[in-house]
Amino acid sequence: MNLNYEILVENLRKLELTRMAEILSGATEDAAKGEASYTEFLSALVDGELAARKDRGITMRTRLAGLPYIKTIEDFDFSFQPSIDKKRIKELSTLRFIANGDNLVLTGPPGVGKSHIAIGLGLKAIAAGHRVYFTTATGMVSSLLKAFQESKFEHRMKNYTSPVLLIIDEVGYLPLDRSGANLFFQLISRRYENGSIILTSNKSFTEWGEVFSDTVLASAILDRLLHHATTINIKGESYRLKEKRKAGFFNREVDSSE
Ligand code: ADP
Ligand code: MG
């Protein structure tokens, strides 16, 4: 009996049913107590294996997504940022926009929660089984530029075109030169009506001509990006400043001048 059990565990491991191997002992004990039918016994093992695989998938996709930090939509304090309509974020959390291949553009000043919301929605997409990739605008452009010089452009482009959801953070913090703007346009064109983008920017759309060093290119980018898109403009105070203020980094005079 003992030997049979050991062989069974070993065989489960050979079949890479590692979770089943782990929970076999407890499930067998329960069944022996007469508390589980054959079907229930096997279901407990199979359910355990499936749950473990799902978790592994989420862990793996989270790692590959390259998120700069992990914060969920549930972590977001909507009462601090009343300019955000919670219902719209709830609707976005259903991920219907991803199923439709629509985009989301979050604009607003630094610290108001643009990246947090993008990451939170990214985590929901990961949990739902989607591949997600996070990049900053300058990170993506410099990576594509380097790949172009090394004749690896098409290959590198796949990093940005193949995920179901691409998050492009911080568009506008640093202006792009002509060649950078061109690469950015190519990426947007390829993803156009092909896969969702969440994009964050501290610049209003009227300033994008300066961001991309070219007004024609900027409007071509905006045209594609906004064709099927939700835009959310966050107006409000920086959460980072609030936290610093709470910690006493600012005195009253600085406070009132802000
Ligand atoms: P940005 O708009 O510059 O991208 P972030 O989204 O990175 O700002 O927010 C800055 C920091 O403040 C992050 O750690 C984020 O989690 C936190 N934060 C911002 N807004 C909120 C909020 N309303 N509730 C909870 N945390 C927030
Ligand atoms: Mg940010």
Which key phrases capture this entry?
258 residues, alpha/beta, 13 helices, 5 strands, 58% helix, elongated, binds magnesium ion
What distance lies between the first and last C-alpha atoms, to the nearest angstrom?
75 Å
Mean pLDDT: 93
How is the biggest beta sheet arranged?
A: 5 strands, parallel
Helix content: 55-70%
The total of beta strands comes to 5
- How much strand? 5-15%
CATH-defined fold name of the largest domain: Rossmann fold
Order of helices and strands: HHHHHEHEHHEHEHHEHH
**Overall 3D shape:** elongated
Q: Uncertain runs with pLDDT below 50, 5 residues or more?
A: 252-258
Q: State the helix count.
A: 13
CATH architectural grouping of the largest domain:
3-Layer(aba) Sandwich
Cα Rg: 24 Å
Structural class: alpha/beta
Name of the CATH class of the largest domain: Alpha Beta
Name the CATH superfamily assignment of the largest domain: P-loop containing nucleotide triphosphate hydrolases
Q: Ligands in the structure?
A: adenosine-5'-diphosphate, magnesium ion
